[in-house]
Amino acid sequence: MNAAGRGDAPGSGRYGEAVFRPGQPDEGGRVDLGALAYDDITLARLRALGAGPGWRCLDVGAGTGTVSRRLLDEAGVTSVLAVDRDVRFLTGRPVPGLDVLEADVTAPDFDPGRFRLVHARFVLMHLPERLRLVTALAGLVEPGGVLVLGDAVDLTSDRAPDNPYARVMRAMWQGLRDAIGTDVTWVPSCPRLLRDAGLAPVAAEIHVPPLQPGSPISRFWVDTWERSREAMLATGLVDDAAVDAAIRYLDSDACAALSAGLLTAWGRKPAET
Ligand SMILES: C[S@@+](CC[C@H](N)C(=O)[O-])C[C@H]1O[C@@H](n2cnc3c(N)ncnc32)[C@H](O)[C@@H]1O
Fold first, then answer.
1. Which of 58, 78, 79 is nearest to 145 (CA)?
2. Which of 61, 193, 205, 240 is the least crowded, having the fewest Cβ atoms under 10 Å away?
3. Closest ligand 1 atom to the C-alpha of 34?
4. Is residue 174 part of a domain?
């Protein structure tokens, strides 16, 4: 990885443009499937960290806003500012306490204020500026507050058992990297990046949702592959038949594979003395 946090051959396209365009039919449904698979674990962690009444929160790259809304409805936080480059899925479902801001978090002048909780899930992995952003997001946390980052951990390494799913997942990560600069290789370093950003203590956990036919996570991967099929084929690692075989495999009892996990890492900003 180079100093900008980019790999050897990062893509020049951007999330939401080259792939995962919000205007594509039911892109919100795809993001919601991922949320269904991971929201319970995210909410449990945010509540364990203290999110509750009195907390002002920032949800960066909020997507369809499931975490933002559950922070308000279930944790009872005071307010959530949900930020996204495209807010169509956020403005469609307003709730009291939810403020929506359309903004590019990579913009040098992105400065929406200071918050007790700053949260970003499945966002930094798609942004080549990720290392700078860890520091920038830490700067938005008020003293005593917490920064929580969630990103994907790939479990289809060369040593993982070979199967139709693993072949297509490897092609997906490579295709997304070539197309938009997505990179998950740095994710295990997340706790250290938080520490380097001046947060302490830091900690992390990983959740791997079970791949079962018809489950939200299995449907999420199928939909994600369909939307990134062109990028996967361009890698030369798979062809259409291999993608179709992986889709059938995921929906069958033959499936014996590990989903990508969600690594959630958090760190506290020291309180002012
Ligand atoms: C994979 S989705 C994750 C959505 C949500 N955080 C979740 O976990 O369900 C990534 C989100 O980040 C947003 N995003 C991507 N690049 C962004 C940027 N530069 N600034 C703000 N939001 C961005 C996308 O529009 C999308 O809604």
1. 58
2. 240
3. 9
4. no
For the record, the structure tokens of 179 come out as 């197309």
Residue 232 lies in a domain: no
What pLDDT shows up at residue 120? 98
Distance 273 CA to ligand 1 centre (A): 35
For 8-25, the pLDDT digits (tens) are 446 678 999 889 999 999
Closest Cα to atom 18, ligand 1: which residue?
104
Assign 81 a pLDDT band (cuts: 50, 70, 90).
Answer: very high
Q: What pTM was estimated for this model as a whole?
A: 0.94
Residue 163 lies in a domain: no
The total domain count for the chain is: 1
In ligand 1, the atom with minimum distance to the C-alpha of 22 is 25
105 contact partners, CB below 8 Å, separation of at least 6:
60, 61, 83, 85, 120, 123, 127, 133, 136, 137
State residue 218 phi and psi, 5-degree precision.
-65, -40
Structural domain contains residue 235: no
Q: Ligand 1, atom 9: nearest CA belongs to which residue?
A: 35
Query: Minimal CA–CA distance to 146: which of 156, 136, 137?
Result: 137
Contact 269, 143 (CB under 8 A): yes
